[in-house]
Design goal:
about 220 residues, alpha/beta, Rossmann fold, Arc Repressor Mutant, subunit A, 2 domains, six-stranded parallel β-sheet, 6 strands
């Protein structure tokens, strides 16, 4: 018999991880071998474990699932990733595609779709929750075919990392330590964020981070 696929599961809610693990471990061809409670921990677990598939929640502390997926694509190009999310959102869908994710699964129907999504990802096939296929994939393909730009990311990946940490309440010094950069560099990125996004202060940055799903309200 073929050994079951080894899965990393990352979600900041322990109850969600427990429920998803029950679904996956009930299947003979799937097994959860590692768990993480945030995006940074997911990256560390992927470095230290032999895994075939990473299932990443989008909204997590320290690093989002999308940020983790982009880093994992650089670190382990052959690793398959799935985004597990409560957000039925076009922008997240396009960001998931950009990050290299094989699929996008809504938590509300994970009991119905997740196993199929895992198997599709392991076959190197895309999986998008059924309700999104017609509108989202058609929109994406039409834009790609005509050369039209996909929805743009207003800030860089580094700025996104700093925005998330600012919104979580970290000081510039703490952010500098976490990202191994200088506090002066953090302040420069923070100033650029305010200018790019047309915002005035930390409170408005936090509201923006909530609106785009970098942190939960």
């Amino acid at each position: 018999m073929t050994a079951p696929a080894r899965i990393l599961l990352a979600d900041d809610h322990a109850l969600v991880r427990h429920g998803v693990r029950l679904i996956l471990d009930a299947e003979p061809d799937l097994t959860v071998v590692a768990e993480a409670s945030d995006g940074a921990e997911a990256i560390a677990q992927a470095r230290g474990n032999d895994i075939d598939l990473a299932i990443l929640d989008i909204a997590m502390p320290r690093r989002t699932g999308l940020q983790a997926a982009r880093e994992l694509a650089r670190l382990r190009p052959g690793l398959r990733t799935l985004m597990l999310t409560m957000y039925d959102n076009e922008q997240y869908f396009f960001e998931a595609l950009r990050s290299g994710a094989s699929g996008y699964v809504l938590k509300s129907v994970a009991d119905r779709d997740l196993v199929e999504a895992c198997r599709a990802a392991l076959r190197d096939e895309p999986f998008i929750y059924p309700g999104a296929e017609t509108t989202l994939i058609r929109t994406y393909l039409d834009r790609a075919r005509t050369g039209e730009q996909l929805p743009a990311r207003p800030i860089t990946e580094r700025e996104e990392e700093i925005l998330k940490l600012v919104a979580e309440g970290h000081t510039s010094k703490e952010i500098a330590l976490l990202l191994v950069i200088s506090a002066k560099t953090v302040e420069r990125h923070r100033t650029n964020l305010l200018q790019k996004l047309g915002l005035r202060d930390r409170l408005e940055l936090t509201r923006y981070a909530i609106r785009v799903g970098l942190i939960e309200p």
